[in-house]
Amino acid sequence: MKHLQSFLIFLLFSGCLSAQNAIDVSARLIDSIHTISIDQNIKFVNTENRELVTIYLNDWNNAFSTKTSALAKRFAEDYARRFHFAKDHERGHTTINSIRDSEDLDLDWDRPGNVVDLLRIKLKQPLKPGDSISLNLKYDLKIPDDKFTRYGRDDEGNYKLRYWYMVPAPLDNGWKLYSHKDLGMQYVKPYSINVKIDVPTEYYAASGLNLTRTQTRQGFKTINFEGKDRVDSEFYLTKSFIFESISANGNQVITNIRDEDIQFDIKNTLLERTVGFLEQRLGSYPHKNIFITQEDYLNSPIYGLNQLPSFIRPFPDGFQYDIKLFKTITSNFLKNTIFINPRQEKWVTDAIMVSLMMDYVDTYYPNMKLIGSLSKIIGIRWFHLADLEFNDQYQFLYMNMARLNLDQPLTTSQDSLVKFNKNIANAYKAGVGLKYLEEFLGDESVNQSISEFYKKYKLKRVTDEDFAEILQKNAKKDISWFFDDYVNTNKKIDFKIQNVEKLEDSLKVTIENRRNNSMPVSLYGLKNGKEVYKTWVENVRDTMSVTIPKKDIERLALNYNQEIPEFNQRNNYAGVTKLLNKPIQFRLLQDVEDPRYHQIFFMPEFDYNLYDGVSIGPKLYNKTILNRTFNFAISPKYGFNSETLVGSASIYNAHQFENKELYGIYYGIGGTRFSYGYGLFYEKFTPFLSFAFRNSYLRSNERQRLLLRNVNVRRDQNSEAPLLQPDYNVFNVNYSYSNPNFLKHLTASFDYQLSDKFSKVAITAEYRKLFTNNRQINLRFFSGAFLYNDARSNDYFSFALDRPTDYMFDYNYYGRSQGSGLFSQQIIVAEGGFKSQLQPEFANEWLTTVNASTNIWNWIYAYADMGVVKNRGEKGEFLYDSGIRVSLVQDYFELFFPVYSSLGWEIGQPDYDQRVRFIVALDLNTLIRLFTRRWY
């Protein structure tokens, strides 16, 4: 009896600990001031085995209230300018009017550590384990503009609400406190919810909650919703009913996803198929409504599809809509039923979602190509890209980050992921990993495990360890490598066939694992390009030899069907009866890598400078769309003005290191030949060695580089002005530090140069700061000095005040020898960094300058430069200039209009148009970095 009583007490106590919080929201929309007034009751249950003296609530609407919140910092890290430059009324905030307990006593509250989207409530009495407390909150929500996160008030007066009412932060062996960082999901414990909202009569309300009542009165209507076991707060108030409600397998799918004019009966069929597929593979959905919105899709689109213009339809009717629906519904299905920590363990739901998407496409669109019907167009179909299946995109986009050495473990917290990993690569790696596991096991155990996991833990708190336990339980092989090496690390996969020994009726194949992991690899035997043999080789830590039957095998290949997301597949082939391991293939234009061939690409390339004019020629190279470690490029061109051969060539190799501050070593040789004047050519030959360092926190932009190179230059003699030093070489050591960010930008470098005629050192530092009042300051400091200088007979090697001579031919001058005319007005801010052309313009002993600017209005700045120029045998001369800088795209397209300098008033001078300077970046790679910096 005593044991029975203890057991009953334990059950009662456990029931208390598992009890849900309950939330009642009574809200009123005041459209004229874009505000929602809320009277909210929260029944909070202490599910810990300790007393609580404080309760934390998530107030994520208030994350928009300041430019210093975690959300604002996240936007700045991603170079999202809109939030910082928005007006105060566009950002939104929360105003707390009162917080009281069930006895109507005011409770003290604060925002701990100045975390603006978190509320800490101090209780009058400690809350014991299993006990509950009722809190009453009255507050007003100023709704932010939807241009920041796609949620908020839009231009048509609709309110797309998410994370709007307050919810208790989760208690899970302590408080789990997370700020709003626009990561896609709030971590909360499931709760029951009742919402009663008053809206003007012209508004409609839509939600995934169950609609229980609508009552219309004069001037407004009251709408009631309710739900149980909820973790999401998405809620729409719209001036027209923009949602469709379609019945699918007993559920109501409420959606406003753009349907591309798909007929209703087709939409209904697609929805029935999608929901049916998910219920077959996972299990039944426990809620009545499946609420999916265009904003849900746009925040996590199918990259590639959503980038295509609407007039391009390379896919069959309904395919794009079907895939958009499937991804959004699957995401909604999982996030509302699998209560996992979305910050730390999201890889589980990502893996399930992407693997289901791949299976769905294989089932209903088995022959779908990545680029659809474009793969059949003459010209495009010659590319290997046209051969890729639709599902190949997942491995391809993950491998993009692996090749850049920017991939991160799947268990990395979502707020620590590089944007490309957070939005794309990590989810794709997770899904591809499950398919890799499925191929390795060769049975249905992975699908069975996913179904078992969903059914067992639906609407329950679950961890990634629970998922791993089910996978391992159902697997007939050891799959510890999947969690130890694939999930928990960013270790690359790279196998190589090291040796093939021909025996009487068999082949002895030695396989090398070039990485420190225990992942398995598939081995194929090929004949006439067709698979005639396959086996899996496990536990290859270093090298392993396996014996397989000959079977008329012509070539051997590892990972032939690319079921493994392997870093380098180019070394996976070995000839048995063939001379070459794989044939050579020439391709017009850059393409996706085809590891079955030695690929060489060629394409037309264009360059321009004043003396060669437009130069055109073929570029022969091996770089594919994804990065590779060994690269070469040969680019001879014909200059139409110089009427001769110019161009460049380079070869370099890279060694990458995972999770090290020294993340890359690069070495190689490059050479160029172009005109430096009319009828005058230079040739530059440069061997180099570079060491690249970075912050271990990959979201940081902090980088360091040490470059050692020897620049060898040969120049044609000018008969009119003979060169004193036509040929020279300069040994250069350059250390650079950079930490560029939207709000604060810092770069610095130390440069040492040694030649037979001179030795010099220089220090450059640049700092930019954008303040909360939108005022920006830009400061640049330069100081350079000769250690010795035996080349003072001219200023070719001297420090330049405004326009460096660029004797190492590093800068992209379009008319480098011009002393007058438009091309002489091109400026590259280097060395002295002055904008006006002052005398003396060179320093053969030392030069120190400071450049500064600040914004006047938007992209218009005032600038000022000052410095001292010191030449041998002369006193140092102080010089200065000032003017207006028009920065249309900073560092890429800018104009400088001088106003006042050491020459006096420059504005209004007869030759003023010749004093204006400009920056124009025409290099395509430079412009691409302007757009990709927010992703990497």
Q: Terminal Cα separation, in Å?
A: 65 Å
**Helix proportion of residues, in percent?**
10-25%
Unreliable segments of 5+ consecutive residues: 1-17
Shape: globular
Q: How many beta-strand elements?
A: 47
Mean pLDDT: 92
Our count of helices gives 14
Major pleated sheet: 18 strands, mixed
- Strand proportion, as a percent range, falls in 35-45%
Alpha-beta classification: alpha+beta
Supply Rg: 33 Å
Which properties best describe this structure?
936 residues; alpha+beta; 18-stranded mixed β-sheet; seven-stranded mixed β-sheet; 14 helices; disordered N terminus
Compact summary:
This protein has 936 residues and is of the alpha+beta class. Helix content is 18%, strand content 39%.
Describe the structure.
With 936 residues, the chain is α+β, with helices and mostly antiparallel strands. It is built from 14 helices and 47 strands. A hairpin with a 4-residue loop joins strand 36 (727-739) and strand 37. The longest helix is centred in the middle third of the chain and has 23 residues, at 419-441. The radius of gyration is 33 Å and the shape is globular.
Topology diagram in text:
Elements (H helix, E strand, L loop, with lengths): L1 H16 L3 E10 L4 E11 L6 E7 L11 H8 L4 H4 L2 H4 L1 E9 L6 E3 L7 E10 L4 E11 L9 E2 L5 E3 L5 E2 L22 E10 L3 E4 L2 E8 L2 E11 L4 E4 L5 E5 L2 E5 L8 H18 L7 E4 L1 H6 L19 H17 L2 E2 L7 H18 L27 H12 L15 H23 L3 H13 L2 E2 L2 H11 L5 H8 L7 E8 L3 E8 L7 E7 L2 E8 L5 E7 L5 E4 L14 E3 L8 E5 L9 E12 L3 E9 L8 E10 L4 E13 L5 E16 L2 E15 L8 E13 L11 E13 L4 E11 L3 E13 L5 E14 L9 E2 L41 E2 L2 E12 L2 E11 L6 E13 L3 E9 L2 E2 L11 E4 L3 H9 L4
Parallel strand pairs: 1-11, 17-18, 19-20, 28-29
Antiparallel strand pairs: 1-2, 2-7, 3-6, 3-10, 4-7, 5-6, 8-9, 9-15, 11-14, 12-15, 13-14, 16-17, 21-22, 22-25, 23-24, 23-26, 26-27, 29-30, 30-31, 31-32, 32-33, 33-34, 34-35, 35-36, 36-37, 37-38, 38-39, 39-42, 40-41, 42-43, 43-44, 44-45, 45-46, 45-47
Helix pairs in contact: 5-7, 7-8, 8-10, 9-10, 11-12
